[in-house]
Structure formats: structure tokens, C-alpha cells
Amino acid sequence: MQKKSVKDIDVTGKRVFVRVDFNVPLNGDVITDDTRIQKALPTIQYLMEQGAKVILASHLGRPKGEVVEKYRLTPVAKRLSELLGKEVGKVNDSVGAEPELAIANMRNGDVLLLENVRFHGAETKNDEKYARQLAELADIFVNDAFGAAHRAHASTAGIAEYLPAVAGFLMEKELENLGKAVTNPERPFVAIIGGAKVSDKIGVIENLLGKVNTLIIGGGMANTFMKAQGYTTGKSLVEPDKVELAKELIEKAKSSQVALLLPTDAVVALAMEPTAQQKVVPVTEIPEDWMVLDIGPASAATFAAAVKQAATVVWNGPMGVFEMDAFAKGTEAVARALAESNATTIVGGGDSVAAVNKVGVADKISHISTGGGASLEFLEGKVLPGVAALQDK
Ligand SMILES: Nc1ncnc2c1ncn2[C@@H]1O[C@H](COP(=O)(O)OP(=O)(O)O)[C@@H](O)[C@H]1O
Ligand SMILES: O=C(OP(=O)(O)O)[C@H](O)COP(=O)(O)O
């Protein structure tokens, strides 16, 4: 179903609440990759040109309903001001007297960034009262946060109950590009899943097994599968609650026609620090007191070979702690394999896109998506709540 877009409504002089996904990777208060801000610019600039009052809202990290200083959106407001060439106002809350006053003082074409919506626990609970409070700040709701569209939260879904709700340009483009690539994908179709949001993303694997020809698992996600295979995992990031599910998924892959590729070797270290002692070991020999922080060279070669055979590749989640050069080789190898392939390639997710940018191959990827979990759920065939909430054309 086609959704109404920001072009389908009159926004001039209106207060427009735009949900963006400014959940950018940070090192302290330095934004290490601003792709998600860059990709939201067309909607923001269009609204400015149309003379709307642009009220931006986003989450950053997972502060769990508390004010956490490192998750303030202040560095984002600064970067956005630089990119727009115009001062972006910033308030310290998303609801209440301070935003209300700032909005009352906005002129047409002004841009204001609200504070991290997840400082309120009501956001992730999709609390009705909070959604209504957000809605009262504006006349129109625009959802441009594709990266958070798989979340049924107050600022992504709940608010749409109370305002005319339309898609932004980024949201439209993401749905179109992903739709083209994954509806009747060219085969072999390979999906690669890694990263650290294991309990969030392991659930998508079951449905993916019905869609892809090859499923590659690396990064933190692979550790839970190692445990499921009966290997020791030392101090690695493992989700004990998901080990049984991982076992079932391994069995399901065997009984379906899907090739499930898991790491056979790993880079282990004594600590998650760039200078920590490290070595490469087979996954069957992960020592106690060590942690898996990257896939090993043999796994990287196997994964790259599978990518070479593919006609469509979707990748979300780095193969290791790529932020530290010592543990970035696996992620770099996979990024290069995608870049060198003739397949339709899609890379999604804040950190995965940062990794591809770090390797310098983003221009060799068919579609850079701002959503990781959102892309995977879209690929599963799920209706994303942030999209469902928008008005039909
Ligand atoms: N073996 C591992 N152990 C711990 N963290 C890991 C491991 N492999 C990858 N990561 C971390 O996963 C994070 C990214 O995960 P995720 O948020 O799921 O990806 P994306 O943002 O691309 O969707 C990175 O910060 C990376 O350091
Ligand atoms: O970074 C995000 O997802 P991603 O890591 O799957 O790309 C989105 O901003 C959603 O964040 P969330 O997974 O904390 O809801």
C-alpha cells in the first residue's frame, strides 16, 4: 500500500514534527559516522523551503527511560547546523514547557531538535499520554526514521493516532529500494547477520531461512551459535536465553535447503581493548578468560567466497568489534567482498554503514540503508509499525 508523503500535504506555516533516526555511532561526543544525519537532509531542507516549522525528534542509544548525559542529542544538533548552514535550536526535553516555548517562538523555516525521546520510558512503551503530548507540539507528523520503523514506539507509531501522518523522502526511498531488491530477489540470495543486538535480531533468522539460499552469521551473533554447537565461548558476548533457539535454527537450516555458514575460527583477546593480547583460534578451542572479538581469517575467506557466488546480498551487523583496528579485519574482508561483487548489495544499520564507510567502499554498494533491524524485518516480510501508522494514498 502506497503511503502519503510529505509532498501530498500543505506544510507551509505548519508545525511539522519529523521523527528522524539520528542514532549515530559516537566516540565520546564525536560522531564517527553522520550518514543518518546526511540522509535526513532532503526532507528537512524541503520543509524549510516550504516555510514549515521543523521540529525534529530522535532517539540515541538505549538510555532506558533515564536522562543519560552521553546520550544527549547536543552533538547531533551541532553537526546538523553545520550541514544545513543554519543554526538548529536544541532543547533539553522532548515535552513540557521548554519545547513548548521554543516552538511558540519558531519562525517559518526554522529547525528545532528535541532531546532524546528515550529519556522518557513512555517512548518505548508507546504510552498514549506521551504520544499525545508529542502530538500537541505539532500540526503534522512526518516519519523519516526508517531505521526505527520496526519499533512501535510513541514517536514512531503512537503519535500518528493524533496527527495527519505521512512519510518523509528517506522513508519513501528506503521502502522503494529495499522493495525492489528483496521482492523476487535474484538468486543466489545471501544474507549476512552480525553485530551485537543478538536478542533483537536472532528472531528474524527463522523467517530468513525461508527466503535466502545462504545465511552467514558472524559478529557477536555468532557466539550464541557457537555455544549452541557445544563450544566454550569464554568471556564472549553470548545470550544464554537464546542458545536453545540457536540450536533450533541450526536444525531448521539443515532440514531446509539453506546453507548456514558459521565462523570456523575467531580472533580472541583477553579484553575488549585495542592493545589487549590477541590470537586466532579455531572456534572449537576458545579459551576460558578470552573473548571472541572478530571472525578469523579462514571464516572471512569462506564468507567472501559465498558473497562472490551471490546475485543478491543483504548485510546487517559487523563481523567483529570493527571500531578497533585490531578486530576490524573480518568486517573489512566482508565489506571488500561486497564491493567487489557484481551482485545487488544492500548494507543496513548504523554501525554496518559506518564500517563500510571506514573501508571506503560505500560507493560500490548498491543500496546503503539507514536501517539494520528495520531492513531485516522488512526482508522477513513484516509490516513495519512506523510505516503501518502512516496514511494511505
Ligand atoms: N564479537 C563481538 N563481540 C562484541 N561486540 C561485537 C562483536 N562483533 C560485533 N560487535 C559490535 O556490534 C556492534 C554493532 O551491532 P549492531 O548494532 O547490531 O549493528 P548495526 O548498527 O549495523 O545494526 C558494533 O559496535 C560492534 O563493535
Ligand atoms: O540503530 C538502530 O538499529 P540498527 O542497529 O539495527 O541499525 C536504530 O536506530 C534502532 O535502534 P534500537 O535498536 O535501539 O531500537
Automatic annotation (TrEMBL):
Keywords: ATP-binding, Cytoplasm, Glycolysis, Kinase, Nucleotide-binding, Transferase. Substrate binds at D21, F22, N23, R36, H59, L60, G61, R62, R118, R151. It comes from the Bacteria. ATP binds at K201, E323, G349, G350, D351, S352. Signal peptide: none annotated. It holds the Pfam family PGK. One of its GO terms (cellular component) is cytosol. It is found in: Cytoplasm. The keyword Cell wall biogenesis/degradation does not apply. It catalyses: (2R)-3-phosphoglycerate + ATP = (2R)-3-phospho-glyceroyl phosphate + ADP. GO terms for biological process: gluconeogenesis; glycolytic process. Its EC number is 2.7.2.3. One of its GO terms (molecular function) is phosphoglycerate kinase activity. Pathway: Carbohydrate degradation; glycolysis; pyruvate from D-glyceraldehyde 3-phosphate: step 2/5. Belongs to the phosphoglycerate kinase family. Monomer. This is Phosphoglycerate kinase. The gene is pgk.
